[in-house]
Amino acid sequence: MDRVPYHRQRWLLAATSLAASFSFAGIAAAQDAPAAARQDATAGSEDNPIVVTGSRIARADLVATVPVAVVSSEEIAQTGAANIQDVLADLPAVGQNISRTSTNFSTTGNGQASINLRNLGSSRTLVLVNGRRFVAGVPGTSIVDLNNIPTDLIKQVEVVTGGASAVYGSEAISGVVNFILDDEFQGLRLHAQAGLSDKGDAARQLVSATAGTSFAEGRGHIVIAGSYDKDHGLRSRDRTFSATDNPNRSSYNAQGLFSPNGSFAPGAGTLTFDAFNNVKNYQSANIDGYNRNADRYLALPVERYLASSLAKFSFSPAATVYGEFTYAKSKSNSSLEPQAVASSDLVYADGSAFGGIPIANPLIPTAIRTAMVNAGVTALPFRRRSNDIFDRSNHNDRETWRAVAGVRGELAPSLHYDVYYTHGETRDVTHSGTVYGPNYANALNVVAGPNGPVCAINADANPNNNDAACVPLNIFGFNTVSAAAAAYVTRNGEQSRYEARVKQDVASATLSGELFKLPGGPLGFAIGGEYRHEKSTEDFDEATNLGLTLGNQLSDTRGAYNVKEGFVEISAPVLADLPFIHRLSFEGAARYADYSTVGGVWSWKVGGEWAPVRDLRFRGVYSRATRAPNISELYSAQNETFPAVIDPCDQRRGAGDGAPISLTNLPAACRANTAIANAAASGGFVYSTAQIQNINGFTGGNPNLKQETAKTLTLGGVFEPRFLPGFSLTVDYYDIKVENAIGIIGQQTSLNECINGGGQAIFCNNIVRDATGHLDSVNAINLNTGSFEASGIDTQARYLVRFSGDTRLDLNVRWSHLLKQQQTSYPGGPTQDELGQLDCYACGRLGTGFRDKVNVSATFALPGASLNWRANYLSSVVDDLTSANPIRTGSFWYHDAQLRFGAGEKSRYSFYLGVDNIFDKTPPVFGDTSPVTFPGTQTSANTYDLYGRLFYAGVDFRF
């Protein structure tokens, strides 16, 4: 691609809910692990009940009707990851995320990091910090940028699904990820780490410090933390699988391509330059073209500064005041090949078409002017890359701050309250170089002057060119543009500017406790209300708004909404300690939300648990979850995209320059277009690579959207045999159905259905063709258009063996087996099966439908040393289930290991070495023209490892 596609993954469609249990020292499901192994969760008691994510009711045990996964601080340390996203990405329930490997071609937001449960999309995963909402990092959405979460301050991460929307509100359709920070840390911790690939690149560094103390006889605590880390990124040219454009380089080359007859086809009719700037015939893109991957990133560099503080003070059991403050600053930049410019892109300031370089331009070489005369044209079409003019890559600066103030306590025995207010803000600024189109057109409209070439600035020479500051632009050959001309067409290096701001205010009050005793225990309840206000603005500079910078034409987005909510939750332990009823309990929750946008919305859940004996229990939840449309979905204006689509009428099947005709029998809808039929009859209706790359489209918001609804069923069992201490087994079945899903009809879907599906207006109205029959635009707009259904089985087995002393062996196997992943793109439309298929945004897919994902972790610990080995399995998938000749990836195993040594009391001084992707597994290669490929990667960049073997080492001192 030569243009910047609008890869903002706020619109990523996906489906299902998380019903998995994970393991500690792997990833431990706190409520499912053996009691002796619950080292990573704070145990409750009758005197000290706690709140587990997924419920607002404090309870003495960690048993819940939905699986609650706990990622401990020990597990985070074992990965050697500076960014918490890298830890969570290994969970089988996590789908394709917004990340530094998938955002090089994002228009904005480069290097952001999100969490996406069950491929339902990051907008449908609610992120909490200490049980409270966090301000969005992606403007216009609810998506939290995980770059803002301080990894070394995390005590544990809790993940829950099944009825979460009833407890926490909108965005919790797929589940909740709750980052619990250590607000009682005492002492001083210093942590440093550095890493490098075995090829000497992809460097990473981290330094952090955490300090905490208690005072007033333990009634008060204060913790402060700061960290700095830098990921240097990875160039596409530094890996063999992505070093070169595949299958074709770009015809937009650095020396220019000039075609008097306008065909730009290889041969005598198209001229270019050799390395010595001599005119020559254009042979092909692979010989005379441009290798864009030499400029691109596989993974973006990200630099982060984080500062956090937490404080609390208990005046009495009736009142504990608490507060939090977080500040995060992150910097990132993309790397894109220089801007591709064509004569057809240019217009003058008055809006009139440029038409081509006038034959009177004295800078035109004699050989090219002669070809123009022979072709009988007076205006020269061209294509050229802007290497000697400017750098269009993005430079991002993001700042986020968030403050929390609250008070909680006991109003009476077994009656608790919690009232808090949070305010958060995100500011995102992106700069990139630009070419100003009208100036470029002026600078090519050149005539001979008394002292050399000059711009045709008088009305007699050309009425369109009246800029006295114009400097002639010589684009004929390598490095021919003067500094003065480059300054003119870039308006003295002026950069495009994007500035976004997000503001969030939340006020919440909860009353919880026990009402009365039931035979199985006290009846717990929680009731409360919440008010939330969200505001987001996105502003582009005027030239970008008008599409005059030759990049994407992008519009501003401004919007706000508020919601008032009330909720109630009940937990009823009905029976206990009876024959065949060791425990029987039921629970339910309901929430009513009044949105300023969509009105009143209900969410609810019902569930229960039955343990016939102490060693075995069964659980289940049925819920109705909702998600209100976000600001971007409602209010975003029309934005230009360049989707990677293949016209079903293209007789080269999207293969581009030089490919043979493979489609000989055009579909009837193609033949009905006179221009297409005539072209097919006279040699073929085909697309060049450049034509494919220049198909654009527009996406936009819809203020008439309604809320999404989802119904989720989770059924599972937990087996903890007393005859085999340290062993546990959990099996959970989930099924989720989403209706009225907010999304778009994928551009490729619109094309396929318009041509092959009977020409329905819902599809064909999205398609615009030019006079030759070729695609000009394929558009999309947000609609409550589709439905998803997904189901699967999650199994976890864990065995913790303790030997003498502190020696132990901890084995974990987590397996997610996907039974169904499918969607219906529009009401009454065909069902698209996505089980066993790779993620593809242009195709409107939910995400990669791995039939099986397995995570295995083994930790062998001795006094003063431990070895952890982790393995992740991804089952085989194909690039396109609808293809007659799909590409199959084969299955993938990734292996990581860490060796840690400890010294001092309780190993307070740790030294560790680690390696990721031990066997240097390379990703599958699909090529640039595949719809599953991210530009510059030749593969599915948010699915497979791009780095190869990585080494790291670090120290972790605690005083």
UniProtKB/TrEMBL annotation:
Residues 385-918 form the TonB-dependent receptor-like beta-barrel domain. Pfam families: Plug (PF07715), TonB_dep_Rec_b-barrel (PF00593). Residues 65-176 form the TonB-dependent receptor plug domain. It is found in: Cell outer membrane. Coiled coil: none annotated. It is a multi-pass membrane protein. Residues 1-30 form the signal peptide. Keywords: Cell outer membrane, Membrane, Receptor, Signal, TonB box, Transmembrane, Transmembrane beta strand, Transport. GO terms for cellular component: cell outer membrane. InterPro entries: Beta-barrel_TonB (IPR000531), Beta-barrel_TonB_sf (IPR036942), Plug_dom (IPR012910), Plug_dom_sf (IPR037066), TonB-dep_rcpt-like (IPR039426). Belongs to the TonB-dependent receptor family. This is Outer membrane receptor protein involved in Fe transport.
